[in-house]
Design goal:
alpha/beta, Zincin-like, 2 domains, four-stranded mixed β-sheet, three-stranded mixed β-sheet, 5 helices, 7 strands, 40% helix, elongated, UTP_pyrophosphatase-like, YgjP-like metallopeptidase domain-containing protein, YgjP-like_metallopeptidase
């Protein structure tokens, strides 16, 4: 059962959907720029859960708004599979020298919810839909995944690495 709700955080009215499901733990997730709150059927106070994580919710929501606004000014690129692979691999090699790490394997596939991923085994996966994005955004995603070879989680240390190279980007 999904229902639409709103909560005010730092002066912004944030919409979210609430789902009561047969789960063990409550969770907050962002999908396509929207907050989803998933709680066990008998969960007492979902708003308290959101407010306990209000800084995270606020950052993710405002980042998604900024991303949508930024995307409106971008033009899609026509690149072949080969050109895309060469671009990603050239960024990977350049960043391997820069960061002192090398991925075990680099693969390309269509993904529905992610631009890229990094496994604990050092394998990088890139969404084939990246081929349509401008080069600077492809570079950002490749660096983001390469940084995960050093720091697997989105920790403060991880974001310091990202910020050291892309100071003008929000995350």
């Amino acid at each position: 059962m999904n229902s639409d709700h709103r909560i005010g955080i730092n002066g912004i009215d944030i919409p979210y959907s609430l789902s009561h499901r047969k789960v063990k733990r409550a969770r907050l997730e962002f999908r396509a720029g929207r907050l989803n709150v998933v709680v066990p059927k008998s969960f007492p106070d979902h708003e308290q859960l959101i407010l306990r994580h209000k800084l995270w919710v606020y950052r993710r929501y405002t980042d998604s708004l900024a991303t949508i606004e930024n995307a409106a000014s971008k033009k899609l690129v026509g690149r072949s599979d080969g050109e895309f692979r060469d671009l990603v691999l050239s960024f990977t090699n350049k960043m391997a020298d820069e960061l002192g790490v090398m991925p075990d394997k680099v693969t390309f596939r269509k993904m529905r919810t992610k631009w890229g991923s990094c496994s604990s085994a050092g394998r990088l996966n890139f969404n084939r839909h990246l081929m349509h994005l401008p080069e600077d955004l492809v570079e950002y995603v490749v660096f983001h995944e390469m940084a995960h070879l050093i720091e697997l989680r989105h920790s403060p240390r991880f974001w310091q690495m990202i910020d050291s190279r892309f100071e003008d980007r929000s995350h």
